[in-house]
């Protein structure tokens, strides 16, 4: 089952791939970054949630590691292959190999955590991931809100987990609050010139459409948006509007409340930041009343679109998605 989270990750990949289409001299990240750095605990909770959904690809690996760990522990516990007769379903396995019940089956842990089998209590519990997969790809590096380059998102989540559980592996208490600011190494951000900023909405529109089309071609666009995409393909006047609706509706998922908060911008901001430095001033321009929330109207306006049929479509999609989303609400512990 392709979950919405996976699609989000795939989207990010597409975003990064397609951003090469855009050529902007980089720009300075101003107020929005200050805003993004002013966190209270509740904000952080939400950001973590979004962040962890965003790195769901890491989950697959973590889940796998968890299963291996669980199997190892179980194997140690039931070391000798006998007396495994407790399981009542299915027949005995040839050679009396013990049936290992994986207590971590179906357990999902948040970013930076893995499930560990608690054999005594027959349940899985989420613990900080013992080790992150080694990363040599520089594109997996992340810049934190402390302007420090880390090897991978996993390392950030792991360290945060260690600090939040008072583990001796916590390097500094402050790291309880560390989060990913953007993908790539930390760097000096040059200015976004007025000209570049003025041209940005056009390029953003084009690019959103290209990403949407690319996802559709690869069968990675959620069903709810396929109609939008088809329409955009066949009717030039809907091209940008529909792409804008798609992106906005998708960003507005935490929760679906008809407004995109600054935290919900994470999936668009973090991967683009290092490549498209006008993204920060652009996103800021999408929130002219500075209430930290971007309505669909504001989004349409800053993309320089007609706002006529924006609202109704989005509500439809959100409803459609919510109807199907029940099985996707994994426990982010
Ligand atoms: C962040 O770190 C980079 C690389 O060390 C440096 O060039 C840049 O000036 C720093 N940015 C800020 C805002 O301190
Ligand atoms: C939700 O389910 C309906 C029918 O059950 C389906 O037509 C629709 O495409 C689904 N939407 C998503 C986003 O999966
Ligand atoms: C294309 O979309 C516009 C704007 O919604 C609409 O007025 C027009 O009838 C559509 N054209 C076709 C061929 O569907």
From TrEMBL:
<dbReference type="GO" id="GO:0005615">
    <property type="term" value="C:extracellular space"/>
</dbReference>
<protein>
    <recommendedName>
        <fullName>SPARC/Testican calcium-binding domain-containing protein</fullName>
    </recommendedName>
</protein>
<dbReference type="GO" id="GO:0050840">
    <property type="term" value="F:extracellular matrix binding"/>
</dbReference>
<keyword id="KW-0964">Secreted</keyword>
<keyword id="KW-0106">Calcium</keyword>
<feature type="signal peptide">
    <location>
        <begin position="1"/>
        <end position="29"/>
    </location>
</feature>
<keyword id="KW-0325">Glycoprotein</keyword>
<keyword id="KW-1015">Disulfide bond</keyword>
<feature type="domain" description="SPARC/Testican calcium-binding">
    <location>
        <begin position="189"/>
        <end position="302"/>
    </location>
</feature>
<keyword id="KW-0732">Signal</keyword>
<dbReference type="InterPro" id="IPR001999">
    <property type="entry name" value="Osteonectin_CS"/>
</dbReference>
<dbReference type="GO" id="GO:0005518">
    <property type="term" value="F:collagen binding"/>
</dbReference>
<dbReference type="InterPro" id="IPR036058">
    <property type="entry name" value="Kazal_dom_sf"/>
</dbReference>
<dbReference type="GO" id="GO:0005509">
    <property type="term" value="F:calcium ion binding"/>
</dbReference>
<dbReference type="InterPro" id="IPR018247">
    <property type="entry name" value="EF_Hand_1_Ca_BS"/>
</dbReference>
<dbReference type="Pfam" id="PF10591">
    <property type="entry name" value="SPARC_Ca_bdg"/>
</dbReference>
<dbReference type="InterPro" id="IPR011992">
    <property type="entry name" value="EF-hand-dom_pair"/>
</dbReference>
<dbReference type="InterPro" id="IPR019577">
    <property type="entry name" value="SPARC/Testican_Ca-bd-dom"/>
</dbReference>
